[in-house]
Specification:
Oligomer: single chain
Largest sheet: 9 strands, mixed
Helix content: 25-40%
Radius of gyration: 20 Å
Number of helices: 9
Structural class: alpha/beta
Length: 309
């Protein structure tokens, strides 16, 4: 590509778009936000369309699209964009199933465009430092504790409780995106998933892994956490106890803070998207999504008290 701005269309104008995507794109000179498509939301100052099909028909000059609708509806939109030879940014999780995203990856290659599975938590400021620390240490065990209040972060979002909506694995996949980046390869050995009686997706999960060389990793996910929210990965090693907290924002070893910086995840995501477009490659790591699929496949289902938000 030339150095001209990437003409971008955003699909699915909801909370995450207003909170993260629009501010990130507005500050990035690599992009020109040219259009939006959404059933309900609109973006001021640009053309808005009811569907991605209408947007692509009216805006043939678009170079790329960001797909920010719920994962259950993302495959059809992604296929439409890729077949129109547009580069595609997939909000996390990249799809409702592993197989559909595998197909999209092949479709992107066939059409000569880039596909980006955007694991935003991997771009938290202390993640690379944690990866570097663990790369130089001998790991003995690790624990993932991701506990937050769905009523605070996802008010009135019923899609997350429907099949394909992931439930507590919607935030939990953020933890997995970091863990699969900084820890050795690992595999689920057991899981217990707590389903509210009135919901089709879990509100909590208790998962056990082992790494490729047999070390234990545990994961506790809870979506009804009150008070302080917890987004931590703790690892014991021969070089000390590492705590990556704040969803990847802060790193400490044996209580000493090594890295603590403001987050800039979405600006980094859009930088990466521009980089892969200009390099003519895709970036689609399915490991976090595969772990979620494995948890549902191996998990014992526990029924818990009905949840009302």
């Amino acid at each position: 590509m030339t150095s001209n701005p990437i003409k971008l269309g955003i699909v699915g104008v909801g909370k995450i778009v207003r909170d993260q995507h629009l501010p990130a794109v507005a500050k990035d000179r690599d992009y020109e936000l040219a259009a939006a498509a959404s059933r309900h939301g609109k973006v001021d100052g640009i053309p808005n369309y009811p569907t991605i099909e209408a947007m692509l028909a009216a805006e043939p000059g678009l170079d790329a699209v960001s797909l920010c609708m719920p994962p259950q509806f993302r495959y059809d939109a992604a296929r439409t964009a890729l077949e129109a030879k547009k580069h595609v940014f997939l909000e996390k999780p990249p799809g409702a199933t592993v197989s559909e995203v595998e197909y999209l990856k092949a479709l992107a290659a066939k059409n000569g465009v880039s596909l980006f599975a955007s694991w935003h938590s991997r771009y938290a400021p202390a993640v690379e430092a944690a990866r570097g620390f663990l790369g130089s240490a001998k790991l003995t065990s690790a624990a993932i504790n991701w506990k937050e209040d769905v009523r605070r972060w996802h008010p009135n979002q019923e899609w997350i409780w429907e099949p394909g909506g992931f439930g507590v694995f919607d935030p939990g996949i953020n933890a997995l995106s970091i863990a699969t980046h900084i820890l050795p390869p690992m595999f689920i050995t057991s899981a217990e998933l707590d389903f509210p009686e009135n919901r089709a997706a879990p509100v909590a999960a208790h998962v056990a892994f082992r790494t490729s060389n047999g070390l234990p990793v545990t994961m506790e996910l809870d979506w009804l956490q009150t008070g302080p929210q917890s987004w931590d990965i703790v690892a014991d090693s021969d070089k000390g106890k590492m705590v990556l907290s704040g969803g990847g924002a802060k790193l400490a070893v044996d209580g000493k803070v090594i890295r603590d910086e403001p987050e800039a995840e979405y600006p980094m995501l859009y930088k990466r998207f521009a980089d892969i477009i200009r390099a003519g490659i895709s970036d689609v790591d399915l490991a976090p999504l595969q772990h979620v699929a494995d948890a549902f496949m191996l998990g014992k289902r526990n029924m818990v008290e009905a949840f009302f938000d």
